[in-house]
Write a structure and sequence with these properties.
GO terms for molecular function: L-phosphoserine phosphatase activity; magnesium ion binding. By secondary structure, the protein is of the alpha/beta class. It is built from 14 helices and 8 strands.
Length: about 325
């Protein structure tokens, strides 16, 4: 009787506990069980199992991710621009000339169409006025404080809550399998280094981005790195693989992006010898996020999508492949 009771108890425990353990074992719970998820997980398994013919040594397991539109949202404008806008408003009293100088005048009036008319030259004026003429420490502190309170104009979420939960899971899944994860973004490198390590778990030295020139100086008897009002390097399009080679020194095994600005990085990754995976995130969910591609002025996806389809890269359909977009 005792043996029968133990047997029944074991059966009951298996029925209750095993399904719970199985569910908890899913490293990508925010991904639907589609072919996309299966392809991603299969590639990771094949490249990390020692007996696999596709095995990749740990030191070669490099995964690079774009940031805007890949790890967090980018509509209706790149989030770094919202930082610049708020900085202009905060500093307006110190710059009376901005009342008549474009694009500052339009921005202070709330005329974003006027800001757009100023084109890239106007955007660069905004960036230089809000990102330069301070030390790297001062800039980092400014971004850090802004990130604690600044909210997205459409969702009212903190910008750090506008990250994609499925991508957070993917970063963790890759790291748990020996992959070293990097951000390679067109965004400002120091802007990202101020908050991304806490949000993504990626250390500052593994964040690559656009930069302005800096200079070593002594200010008030202390050595500092000062940010100068001059572009140093634009980490976009062909600049991405160039910077990867210069800073990382290895061709990635995995590259993930979402726009034409990532095309060169994705192509360069896929062209390497051995197993390589290029992933393109397609924004198709107008209800939970935004739906856009070739007609968008932000994160334009025109040339990269047909290349991805032709070369059989993995294309993530946000509406179909993700059961959750944001963490909350």
């Amino acid at each position: 009787m005792i043996r029968a009771t133990r047997f029944l108890l074991l059966l009951w425990l298996n029925a209750v506990i095993v399904p719970v353990v199985f569910a908890a074992a899913d490293p990508l719970p925010s991904w639907n069980d589609t072919a996309t998820k299966q392809q991603v997980m299969q590639f990771v398994q094949q490249t990390t199992e020692e007996n696999s013919p596709q095995f990749v040594p740990v030191e070669e397991r490099i995964a690079v991710f774009d940031n805007d539109g890949t790890l967090w949202a980018e509509q209706p404008a790149y989030f770094q621009l919202f930082y610049a806008v708020d900085r202009v408003k905060d500093e307006a009293d110190k710059h009376p000339e901005w009342k008549t100088e474009e694009p500052f005048a339009s921005l202070l009036k709330g005329d974003m169409e006027g800001v757009k008319k100023s084109g890239m030259e106007g955007v660069m004026k905004l960036v230089m006025a809000t990102h330069a003429n301070m030390t790297t420490d001062q800039f980092s502190q400014s971004v850090d404080q802004w990130m604690k309170t600044a909210k997205h104009p459409a969702t009212e979420k903190l910008f750090t809550q506008m990250v994609y939960q499925p991508m957070i899971e993917l970063l963790g899944y890759l790291r748990s399998n020996g992959y070293k994860t990097y951000i390679v973004s067109g965004g400002g490198v120091e802007f990202m280094r101020a908050w991304a390590p806490q949000v993504y778990g990626i250390p500052p030295e593994q964040i690559i981005g656009s930069s302005i020139k800096t200079e070593y100086q002594y200010i008030d008897g202390k050595p500092v790195i000062s940010r100068l009002p001059e572009i140093d390097f634009v980490d976009d399009k062909e600049g991405k693989p160039v910077n990867i080679q210069k800073i990382i020194g290895r061709r990635p095994v995995i590259a993930v992006g979402n726009s034409d600005g990532d095309l060169a990085m994705l192509q360069w990754t896929k062209a390497g010898e051995g197993p390589r995976m290029s992933v393109l995130v397609h924004h198709t969910d107008a209800e939970r996020e935004w739906a856009y591609d070739k007609e968008s002025s932000v994160g334009r996806l025109d040339k990269a999508l047909p290349v991805a389809e032709k070369e059989q890269w993995i294309v993530v359909d946000m509406k179909q492949d993700w059961n959750r977009v944001f963490p909350q």
